[in-house]
Design brief:
Layout lengths: L1 H12 L3 H38 L6 E4 L4 E7 L3 E7 L2 E6 L3 E4 L8 H12 L1
Antiparallel strand pairs: 1-2, 1-5, 2-3, 3-4
């Protein structure tokens, strides 16, 4: 009685050729999904960031990864100098720039609110 159950369990556990083929097809589909939803967009984002950092020039207003806004005053191969206040400059690595800020965002919301408040008086 116990011997028959043991033989039945081992026979059911061995995969046949059709289930192996379907398993490989499923694995290939999962890899394709990972490529198109995770790997490819990340590579595209890295390329766009490298292009943006390569195109930095004097006078650009940028935001660093640390949250510092500044205007580019000097550009080297690996680092840039940012003017963060009048006559205050810091040197940061080029790759630490997270983005170029458009001129519209030059004034903060608080500065705009203060300006509007003064205009109403």
């Amino acid at each position: 009685m116990f011997i028959n159950d043991a033989y039945a369990a081992t026979a059911a556990a061995t995969p046949n050729a059709s289930s192996l083929g379907s398993m490989l097809v499923q694995l290939a589909l999962i890899l394709l999904i990972f490529y198109f939803f995770l790997i490819r967009p990340q590579q595209k984002k890295i390329k766009e960031h490298a292009d943006m950092v390569g195109a930095l020039k004097k006078g650009d207003r940028v935001l660093t990864n640390g949250g510092i806004y500044g205007t580019v005053s000097k550009v080297d191969e690996t680092e840039i100098s940012l003017e963060i206040a009048p006559k205050v400059e810091i040197v940061v690595d080029r790759m630490s720039v997270s983005g170029v800020v458009s001129p519209d965002k030059k004034e903060s919301k608080n500065a705009k609110a203060a300006k509007n408040k003064n205009d109403k008086k």
